[in-house]
Design brief:
By secondary structure, the chain is α/β, with parallel strands linked by helices. It has five helices and five strands. It has a single domain, classed as Rossmann fold. The chain has a five-stranded parallel sheet with strand order 2-1-3-4-5, sandwiched between helices.
Amino acid sequence: MSVPPVISVLDDDPYVRAAINNLLESRGYTVHTFASADEFLRSTDSTDASCVIADVQMPFMTGIDLLTQMRAQGSATPFIFITAFPDESVRVRALKAGAVCFLGKPFAPTDMMQCLDRALAAGGETRG
């Protein structure tokens, strides 16, 4: 029996965190949720993540800043970005920083699952 991948969800909106958590748990993933990049970085769970799903716009540290910091520290954890303000220049910046996907809110659950499948394949993970 394999261990399901751990997905970390970062969004300052508790309803978005809950919706993504419910979607992913219903598909058999282990999910850890965080209200901010800082909360994620301070957590011992941050090193266990098979994939990070992060809001672009969060207080104090953006999702793209978090990705840049993690890459600078040697982390290759795949990132999926979500945003309520899907701007083309931000999308390009996110993808150049190394994001696997960039989804505008609201997004279809199938779109999230396709992005997650791609992210886990890029990170060498398989679904549990």
